[in-house]
Amino acid sequence: MSNNVTPEKRVKVASNQSAASNQSVxxxxxxxxxxxxxxxxxxxLPPALxxxxxxVILPIGEAxxxxxxxxNGYGEPTKWxxxxxxxxxxxxxxxxxxxxxxxxxxxxxIVIQLPLALIIALSIYKKSWTNSLFRLIFFLPYILAEVAxxxxxxxxxxxxxxxxxxxxxALNTDSWYILADNNWAFVAILVVLVWKYFGFHMMxxxxxxxxxxxxxxxxxxxxxxxxxxAIWYVKIPLIISGITISIFFSILGALQTFDLIMxxxxxxxxxxxxxxVSYLYTFGITRMNVGFGSAVxxxxxxxCVIFAFTYQSTMMKDKx
Length: 320
Description:
The protein has helices at residues 7-32, 37-66, 84-90, 93-124, 129-143, 146-156, 163-170, 185-209, 214-222, 227-238, 240-255, 261-264, 276-285, 290-314, and strands at 69-70, 79-80. The chain is an all-alpha fold.
């Protein structure tokens, strides 16, 4: 640039360049801001990413780091064991039991809980005060806190003072301590899980059923379809999105089952009723094996991520 250019001219040139740059950014923003989508992204994505990083990414990263140490949670972890915690985990028989029990919960949810919820939803989805009353009754268990529900059922199954005690006395048989029975304790937990959560799935199905067009149901009746055929060929296909979401919540909930286990059995007797999360709590947190517990947490996290992405890419791929 010539030395004859005055400082005022340099400032003016810089100002013009800045204005041109701003106009270019403004034009690009307007071009790509389809229906304010870009503006929404700019405003809401950074806080969400920040929170996700602080409360999800960082804890998972720390858990992965601590899982490589034998550490009780005090001071800095120093005993580097590489993948020793993972080797110990996969050789532990109680972990196998916890995995198997979690799979049982998933199986029972899909085979018993969800069909039961669907049958009841089909019976009471129409709007009337009696149906509203039944919906409230069936949904009440879901409102109860898990710990409160667990304590209620612990009393029900108590062989000395509970409902089970009255039942065995009425039959004049020996007391049955079902929650202390290796063969039946987890069956009792499955009963409570079905009772606790079927109302939640029922409400999903009811919401979906109330969106089914009535004229389609009437048309099926005019065509001579029976009630079962109307359900199978008309209602079920139209609420398949609700069923898909219900299965997703059911499996994800099974992987996270903890709150009902602890007040009912605490994982006993003989570690026979642990799920993955109660196993993590018992053998990782309460026994001060934070490194080992972190290894369990990492395995559980990987299971949840694999399931979520697999389910999303297969069962829900048409609903994006």
